[in-house]
Amino acid sequence: MIDEQVKQILREYIDGRVINKTYDVFIVWSCKTLQNRKWLLGTTLDDHYYELTYNGDKDEMYIDDYVKVNNLLVNNPFESQTSNRYESI
Q: Which domains does the chain have, with CATH numbers?
């Protein structure tokens, strides 16, 4: 139930900046710690991803809007640093 409400809050935010587009909203990850909650969400609309954080002490929600800048493959991440460790995907 609360996940659907969070998705609706994100849709309202997106609809305020995007006109007449059809898209899906999906939750990638969520967590609840004490009275606080956090969700990471994505859409089929663009390369943005969103972090919604609920502060239970203040009954407030914050939306962080991120854009993917790069996607890199890290070869042998736990070995000593080597040359050519990073590759674009």
A: 2-88 (3.10.450)
CA pair distance 4, 9, nearest whole angstrom? 9
Q: DSSP for 34-76?
A: TTEEEEEEEESSSSEEEEEEEETTTTEEEEEEEE----EEESS
Where b means 16+ CB within 10 Å and e means fewer, 35-65 reads eebebbbbbeeeeeebebebeeeeeeeeeee
pLDDT digits (tens, 9 = 90+) for 37-72: 999 999 999 889 999 999 999 999 999 999 988 888
Contact 50, 66 (CB under 8 A): yes
